Amino acid sequence: MLKKIDHTGIAVKSLDQAVQFYEYLGISPYSYEAVESQKVKVAFLKVGESNIELLEPTSEDSPIAKFLKKKGEGIHHICYEVEDLTAILKSLKENGVKLLNEDPVAGAHGKKVAFLHPKSTNGVLTELSQPVK
Prior knowledge:
By secondary structure, this protein is of the alpha+beta class. It is 22% helix and 39% strand. It has one domain (2-130): 2,3-Dihydroxybiphenyl 1,2-Dioxygenase, domain 1. The chain contains three helices and eight strands, in the order E-H-E-E-E-H-E-H-E-E-E. Strand 3 and strand 4 (50-57) form a beta hairpin. The protein starts with a strand and ends with a strand. The mean pLDDT is 95.
């Protein structure tokens, strides 16, 4: 079912400040994007075969803005790449996993994504992502 870890999402107050830290480590973003469905601006940084996704809220009612108010900056979620997101969501639901998205939504890079509730994933907000073919 899971192909690989696609990325780790990190909630930040400022993309510019967060990017500056990673540039000190010799890593620069390869992509910036606004993800309207999540009300965020993101920057992606490649680290080995995986990515870091820095997320800055664009609205006070963004899930990331709410996360920052409650917990502060830090790791927000882990994302796994899958081949058939719709089938996996159906199977997870049938097995009692609590889904935050019962149907895939638009994510960064045009991918289809869905989130699983931390109550069903050992306390970790989990994103599943299906690449564009």
